[in-house]
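Anyone opening a protein record will find just a pair of labelled lines. A complete record is shown below as an example.
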Amino acid sequence: MVNLYDLTKGNYRIVRTISYPDFPESKVVTDAQVNAASKAEWDTKIEINGTYNGPTDVVSTKDYQLTWNNDGKYIQESGSATLELSSGKSVRQVWSSTITPEHGFDKFPPAGELISITISPFQIDGNSMSYKWEGTVKPRSK
């Protein structure tokens, strides 16, 4: 099992398309270029385009899970999460991504990986948001 830093040395591009099944008119595309300044600090430039017409009172995320598959050149990612709202309701989020390492990679389980992440409730202070997360990576079975 390997993480994204080990695979890419922290230098990659990720293009992600996010949709919301309960809000079919909502679709957001992000295009991020990530460059590792060190093992602890990454410089990330993100372009965000699209439309989101869902609720905006998101306070936390749960059921965050994603799958990685490798075709030798790219990591294909599919994922989903439940966004919890201050009203007690929730919104389902699904996405697909293509991750392109800057220098390629050679260590990746043939059947791919399954990643589960737990994210703490968001701490919002004005225009700033922070959270803690913990993840588990397992090889997928064929």
User: Anything to note?
Assistant: Residues 13 and 33 are 4 Å apart (CA to CA). The domain at 4-139 is CATH 2.40.155.10 (Green Fluorescent Protein).
